[in-house]
Amino acid sequence: MAHILIMPRQGNTVESCVITGWKVKEGDTVTAETAVCEVETDKAAFEVPAGAAGTVLKILHAAGDDVPVLEPIAVIGAAGEDWEKLISQEISHGDTEARREKEEERDKKEKVEGKREEGRDKKEKVEDKREDCRDDGDRDLQSPVPDPQSPLVLSPRARKLAEKEALSPEKVPGTGPGGRIIERDVLAALENRPALTAAAKAAAGSVPAAGTGIGGRVTVADLAAAPQPQVPIPQSPTPEYTETAIKGIRKIISDRMHQSLAETAQFTLNASAPAQRLQDIRSRIKNSDEALGLSKITVNDLILFAVSRVLPQFPYMNARKTGDILKTYSSIHLGVAVDTPRGLMVPVIRNANLLSLGQISQEAKRLVAACQSGTVRRDELSLSTFTVTNLGSFGITGFTPVLNFPEVAILGVCNIELKPVPSDHSPFRIEPHIGLSLTIDHQVVDGAPAARFLKALCEALADIDLLLLTDNQGAQHV
To answer: pLDDT digit string (tens) for 93-140?
Structure first.
């Protein structure tokens, strides 16, 4: 009997996967271990094995398709087997384990989908208005443009007089050599034009043949009522924009970000921590003996270490909210945002609160390298309880991190800046400070408790040397 290959489930929160490419074609012979296609989620890329030996009878989805998990993607069986009948039976009966699981998932998501539908309706109305504006803009750009006129030649005296009297030289016939406009031509044109008030002269545009002022003088009101010449708008030789479909991993990331904002009440607090000791510790470690294996520890590693030690004091920050259930964790599973060629990925440092500074640094670097090379495992990209994202290397002084849903908090790390602080011996002194941006889900964490955590973290970073000295894990292995 033919084997129906389905899109495998990759974690509890993954709803679909993008097929990035097929390694086989219809008619190829495969074994159960043959990798038939490559797929990716917002977290990882992996290969899908055939699952059964035989011939590839039918490929049901093309490369680039975003396929729901547990959806059939291919049929493998004996050459000539009736795969269409098998697929029909699968759809009509729906009694396989995969389909039953999909039905259960569908029931769980009905309430969430209702809220999403309301958000989509609002978004569609906004997009309709934007499309109308774009259409109007396109029509304007396609309107005909007048041909440029030949340049006018004026004598210096004629130009000066025309500017003084607010006379447009385009309407003055030139009687000088080669059609040159000279002073007498401007004087003749002025005789045939009604007199202007001083205010009308200053604002002169298109001057009407007669005015409504005293003695027929043209006033500002007359100028406003007169038709003004249109300024030609140059046409761009190339299209004003290009269209690119949002799909694949970018589409998945887009959906995840929208879900995060749609299902949480996000609120951001900003603060800064003294960074002098951070820089001093980093400098000493960088210049330490290579045999110690500490020279590659970075300021970001020190921040991850401080977060892992402060979070246990504020358990409400180390949590995940799913529906109406809040799970608060005792272990710190620290997510680290990583910029990769495929997009944003968040690998997880497991039990960071039990690791030393050196171990946190090593694990962070291993995970970052795995993400950038595409070798990170799926289990290394799930179930983080708190996330840190660092944009300091780009010179960012403050930003609003988006929650790594369903976590309830995320810390953004900014750059180090010099700031004035009070001094005992002078009005102030200049010290380096590192910026921190903390986003919380206000549905479960209030502003004051979040501020207490941020204040405690700033204090820990300011005295990072003392934190290292008093840490049990740090005493065993920095």
So the answer is: 544 555 566 556 656 665 666 666 666 556 555 554 444 444 444 434
For the record, the structure tokens of 239 come out as: 């299209």
Strands, E assignment, 377-457 = 386-390, 409-422, 428-441
CA neighbours closer than 13 Å in the CB half-sphere of residue 336: 26
With 0-12 CB in 10 A as exposed, 13-18 as middle and 19+ as buried, what is 71? middle
Q: Are 328 and 312 in contact (CB under 8 A)?
A: no
Number of C-beta neighbours around residue 296 at 10 A = 13
Calpha distance 216→219 (Å, rounded): 9
Q: Which residues contact 67 (CB under 8 A, 6 or more apart)?
A: 7, 16, 17, 18, 19, 39, 61, 73
Instruction: Report how far apart, in Å, the C-alpha atoms of 119 and of each of 113, 114, 126, 251, 370 are.
Output: 10, 9, 11, 17, 36
pLDDT at residue 254, as a whole number: 86
Q: How many helices (H) and strands (E) does the chain have?
A: 14, 18
Comparing CA positions, the residue from 59, 55, 54, 67 lying closest to residue 22 is 59
DSSP 9: P
Q: Residue 58 corresponds to which tokens in the numbers above?
A: 């039918």
CA distance 76 to 22: 14
Does residue 293 come out as left (phi exceeding 0), alpha (psi in the -120 to 50 range) or beta?
Answer: left
From CA 454, how far away is CA 471, in angstroms rounded?
20
Whole-angstrom CA distances from 2 to 36, 48, 76, 82, 218 are 16, 17, 6, 8, 92
CA distance 331 to 392: 27
Q: What distance lies between CA 32 and its chain's CA centroid?
A: 40
Tell me: the pLDDT tens digits for 373-382? 888 888 899 9
- For residues 145 and 231, give the distance between their C-alpha atoms in angstroms, rounded to a whole number: 9
Model-level pTM? 0.61
| 47 dihedral zone (left: phi>0; alpha: psi -120 to 50; beta) | beta
DSSP per residue, 136-163 = HHHHHHTS--PPPPPPP-B-HHHHHHHH
- How would you class 353 by CB atoms within 10 Å of its CB: exposed for 0-12, middle for 13-18, buried for 19 or more? buried
Per-residue pLDDT, averaged over 31-53, amounts to 87
